[in-house]
Specification:
four-stranded antiparallel β-sheet; 8 strands; 201 residues; single chain; Cyclic Phosphodiesterase, Chain: A
């Protein structure tokens, strides 16, 4: 009988509804320019994938997890405590390559990446990693560390393409933010921002 296939304690885990991550956001003019580039590239690819709206463009610095039924406030408070301890001067970021995070032959994200122009993002990421560990948020035991690759996602669902250079896109990074992602609802809410004001003397 079908009911015999159901085993107590083995229910599927709840579907995540809320994500939390640190990010750097482009200014509105830069975001509009990136969105136009994404629209052009999607048109050239003739794919079903749609470019991200300017308000959703960002560089993820550190993903802090996906959760079901809302964000755990203790986790949010620890993340905010870590962010408040960061002391770093503003810097310029520049992306000069379009690349695919898809795996052949499946479609996937199309992104902007960079090399020397994203050094400041690596520095900020590393500072956040250390601060998060100090506040009790580290990599989960047994988890595999994923290398940080600074990028701006332009669109999802595009076919794989070889990396190619584009006209450099850059902006001055003067702050970073903690973002609440409403999963499946294409909305990002900024919970807090922290200015980059340089190291303490």
């Amino acid at each position: 009988m079908p009911e015999q296939l159901w085993l107590p304690g083995l229910e599927a885990p709840p579907t995540p509804t809320d994500g939390l991550f640190f990010a750097v956001l482009p200014d509105s003019n830069t975001a509009a320019g990136i969105a136009k580039l994404a629209q052009r590239l999607c048109g050239e690819a003739r794919a079903r994938g749609k470019p991200l709206a300017p308000g959703r463009l960002h560089v993820t610095l550190r993903h802090l997890g996906n959760f079901a039924g809302g964000l755990p406030q203790a986790h949010v408070q620890a993340a905010m405590q870590a962010a408040a301890s960061i002391r770093m001067a503003p810097f310029t970021v520049e992306f000069d390559t379009v690349a695919s995070f898809a795996s052949k032959p499946r479609p996937g994200p199309l992104v902007l990446t960079g090399s020397d122009g994203v050094v400041g993002l690596h520095t900020l990421h590393d500072a956040l990693q250390g601060a998060l560990r100090d506040c009790g948020i580290g990599s989960r035991p047994g988890s595999t560390a994923v290398a940080f690759t600074p990028h701006v996602t332009l669109a999802y669902g595009l076919p794989w393409v070889a990396a190619s250079p584009v006209e450099p896109v850059g902006w001055n990074v003067r702050e970073f933010a903690l973002i609440h992602s409403l999963l499946g609802r294409t909305r990002h809410l900024v919970l807090a921002r922290w200015p980059l004001e340089g190291a303490e003397p």
